[in-house]
Amino acid sequence: MGIEFFTRLPLHGETEYLPGDPRNRGDWTNNENIENTGAVSNYEVGDDFTYIDYLSQVARAAEINGFAGALMVNAPTGEEPWTVCSLLARETKKLNFVTAFQAYHFSPYNAVQTAATYQRATGNRLVWNIINGGSEVIQRQVGDDLPHDERYARATEFLDVVKGYWNNPSFHYKGKYYSAEGGGLKYPLNKASLPIICTAGSSEAAREFGAKHADYYLMRAEKPQEIASLIADVRLRAKKYGRENIKFGLSIDTIARRTEQEALAEAQRFLDEAAEKQRLHAAAAHAGLRSARVLSFEKEYAEKDGSKNVSDFFIHPNVWSGFGYIGVPPGVALVGSYQQIIERIQEYNSIGIELFFLAGYPHLEESYRLGEHVLPHFKKQRQALQRIPEESKYRIA
């Protein structure tokens, strides 16, 4: 089975220490009467070296170390992903950029025109991650009051229209959320390739949306048998739409070190810091801010409330849920020696994961650790991302 590796760019500040620590790189900490000491942590608009320059370092390091792309997480408190993608694309040569956005953020034609322009300028290096909001509270904060399942229905129409526009110079459509009366990409914008499409979410609505439209269905890390079950379910749903080749991706952090003891010590450092700051029950504080499915290991956090024993949070060999326990997304990390990390990647790959989003803290240093000690092991297996061939239904005869 093929395999490919992407990483992540920290659009909302670096996390060498827990979020809010004045030693972190980036100006996301604003503690009164405490001086920030991290790189660009005192950034002011107009400074010669800014946080975007740090992100550029991370992006170039990812490319130097053999990652094929970088995920840009979309959060209301972070930099805007499409803008950052555009800024960094001209500073890299082959790195793909995965921009996360919601159908709520763009009209279908605006998304098509913007993406086509980007693709032409970068050699088709844009990947879309269509998200639909994991928190009802945050959705309302940004002005979107559609209920959870309706957001997925809207996103389904959004991509129907996007694909129609992309494949036709004159596209017509009438739906509940969108309509089109003759618009579409024309020469030379239609030289560009529609971005590869990723999506995530484990609700019924999310699975159906991914089954119909995603080239890559992305998942949060959990126990391998649970991942395998979700893969089987989405594959079965995809067959209803005549889609036999849907692929699967996994987002998981890493604490990769020369020895297992060194990796465990680093994981323990995060727990000790959380204990010092009285954040050993942070996961509970986030419970009301999301509508995503609660994973099996998350249900066990209450039983471990207050624990600062690193061993309490392994849900599978080298698969550590301690980040989720202290409120650091995506919540799960591969923790171990370089060889152990390789073995766990092989295990997840064997059950159907072909695209891995790997990142650690700080992102810059972890990129080098993974690039020098883990990624080279998979050189012969690696395969570039590919679009799933679409039916001709988006074309007008």
UniProtKB/TrEMBL annotation:
Domain spans labelled Luciferase-like: 50-354
Gene Ontology molecular function: any one: alkanesulfonate monooxygenase activity
Name the UniProt record assigns to this protein: Putative FMNH2-dependent monooxygenase (Sulfonate)
Keyword vocabulary terms for this entry: Flavoprotein, FMN, Monooxygenase, Oxidoreductase
Superkingdom of source: Bacteria
Species assigned in the record: Acinetobacter baylyi (strain ATCC 33305 / BD413 / ADP1)
One of the GO biological process terms: alkanesulfonate catabolic process
Pfam families: Bac_luciferase
Coiled-coil positions: none
InterPro entries registered for this protein in UniProt: Luciferase-like_dom (IPR011251), Luciferase-like_sf (IPR036661), SsuD_RutA_monooxygenase (IPR050172)
